[in-house]
Amino acid sequence: MLHAKKELLLHVCCAPCATSVFEALANDFRITAFFYNPNIQPYAEYHKRREQVELLCRRLHIKLILPEYDEDCWVEHTAGYKHAPEGGKRCGICFEIRLARTVSAAQDMGITTVATTLSVSPHKDVRTINEIGSRASGATSNIIFLERDFKKNDGYRKSCELSRTYGLYRQNYCGCQYSLPTMSPHGSKRQ
Questions:
Q1: DSSP assignment, residue 153?
Q2: Angle between helices 71-78 and 89-109 (to 10 degrees)
Q3: Which entry of 9, 31, 69, 84 is 20 to 30 Å from 60 by CA?
Q4: How many domains is the chain built from?
Q5: pLDDT tens-digit readout, 118-142
């Protein structure tokens, strides 16, 4: 007997990260992707990443929600942390902004389970992501944050392979202006 799949609102940071996460969740959930990333700068980069998510969701027949690009919100909340190290306080604030908005959208849509693709990245601390997601969902009475480390079971490697299979653009920085690769004196990119 087939079990009814539960609805899940999945915060998607980018198409490459979403590939293996979609695959990991597809058997148990009816996924709606939620691309809310006001941290991605410049706008041309945001647009490119959004287009890739749209392409992937169309290809996999996954419903996609595209809320407004609210760069001002992100800048306002992270302004005092311009020089914070990658993975520090600024990143935590960034996760809070995106996951709180995802939980709010899920509540508006009547979806009771949320998750994020952020934990597939080897550059992101899964404990921080899960704590923030659980705290954001805990502010409501009916939303559950699905705590997962999507890096496990070769999730990151699978995301790289699936990205190549689908011909997806893979960015070389997290997204915010403070994580943009800079040029070394010899002209090569460094992070």
A1: T
A2: 140
A3: 69
A4: 1
A5: 999 998 999 999 999 999 999 877 8
